[in-house]
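QA checklist item 7 of 12: single-chain prediction sanity check.
[x] sequence parsed
[x] length recorded as 127
[x] structure emitted
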Amino acid sequence: MKFLAAAFALITTAGSGQAETANEAMAGTWARDDGKAHVEVKPCDGGLCATNIWVRPGTARERVGDMLVMDVAPVDDEKYAGSAHDVRRKLNYHIDVSISASDDSMTTRGCLLGRIICKTAGWQRIN
């Protein structure tokens, strides 16, 4: 099952200093490691939104414009955890995000049904 951006990361955090760090870490354009989608992550509605800006033709269940809105908090310097809402599908996920500043990569893990059904995706910053 493909989650928008595999439950990609739109992040908000509780403290203002932490929110700036999350926004800086996540904002930008990311390519999914399977080559089927690019997402733009930017601030929206008090948090961050990841929106599909390109989807490889023929990719099932995903569309340009699909949006994931998330509320996560830092676990440590490079990890975040919380919830995500897929706007089009009206689904809510638990999400874990790991960001590697050293190689501009990110890993997302989105889960449904209390972490019973999960999908992990890798991402590379492209802008």
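[x] summary fact logged: The domain at 4-125 is CATH 2.40.128 (Lipocalin).
[ ] second reviewer sign-off
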